[in-house]
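Second attempt. The first submission of Fibronectin-binding protein had a stray character pasted in from the spreadsheet, which I only caught after the job came back as garbage. Lesson logged: always re-copy from the clean sequence file. Corrected sequence (125 aa) follows.
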Amino acid sequence: MIKSKLFGLALMGLAMGVSLPAVAGGPGVYAVKGNNGEPDSDYTGTLTIVQTSKDTFKLTWNIAGEKYDGFAIGDERFLAASFTSKGSSGTALLVEDDENKGGYKSIWAFKGETQLGVELITPKK
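This time the job returned cleanly.
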């Protein structure tokens, strides 16, 4: 009964021109475009997300041949992650991207740094 009411409300919202938020993809392989927070520091790579339990995820970035291993908590819409690479560690926040259906926008920083990096994370087709 509740599901049918929610479905009806969703259809009514679509008929009125109200858009529903995009749902991020969760587990999968993604293309990454980012910037380290400095001029001329753009990069590209991939991100693989594997769900390890209801609320936990393993993340693996491959950026210019360098691997970053991460662990995240959250759901398919928001992921709070820690990551490591070559003895350095950092934190990232991935948030569903309403403009990039199935993708994320992310901010990140290495431990001890004051600059934020940014990433646009798009599902690979």
